[in-house]
Design a protein that fits this description.
two-stranded antiparallel sheet, about 140 residues, 2 strands, 7 helices, Sufe protein. Chain: A, mainly alpha
């Protein structure tokens, strides 16, 4: 693995450490999510198509993936600040990873930071749809996935 690209596990550990500092404070955790969304690389409006739309989310969410040098490059956006923060966390952990590694990961940080407990059941469904879309994109580039 390229030493300049942190592993999924290393990125998850960073996210977990940041959310542990919030110490269960719902407002602070929500702020952290929104801040993540604000750090998200802008998505070209031309990529916001029906094909890149994540279905199953209450908010509008778009996700575009492309394979570059054997690694997934992910772009996303949402019309909701909170949802944009959720997809930003996923991208932060999974961007520039090998497709097979993405497909095989369990994304343990979601449980570790209590992300599902921060979200309504509708947003939990949206989170699952986002993960499913990312995995589907990675599977396109993974033999025997």
């Amino acid at each position: 693995m390229n030493p300049t690209i942190p592993s999924i596990a290393a990125r998850e550990a960073e996210v977990i450490a940041e959310f542990q500092l919030a110490d269960g404070d719902w407002e602070l955790e929500t702020e952290l999510l929104i801040d993540q969304g604000n750090l998200l690389e802008p998505m070209d409006p031309a990529l916001k198509t029906e094909a890149t739309r994540v279905h199953g989310c209450v908010s509008q969410v778009w996700l575009h993936a492309r394979l570059e040098e054997g690694r997934m490059h992910l772009w996303a956006d949402s019309d909701s600040h909170l949802t944009k923060g959720i997809i930003a966390l996923l991208i932060r952990v999974l961007n520039f990873q090998k497709p097979a590694d993405i497909v095989q990961t369990e994304l343990r940080f979601i449980e570790e930071i209590g992300l599902k407990h921060l979200l309504t059941s509708q947003r939990q469904g949206g989170l699952a749809a986002m993960v499913k879309k990312i995995n589907a994109e990675a599977s396109r580039y993974t033999p025997n996935a």
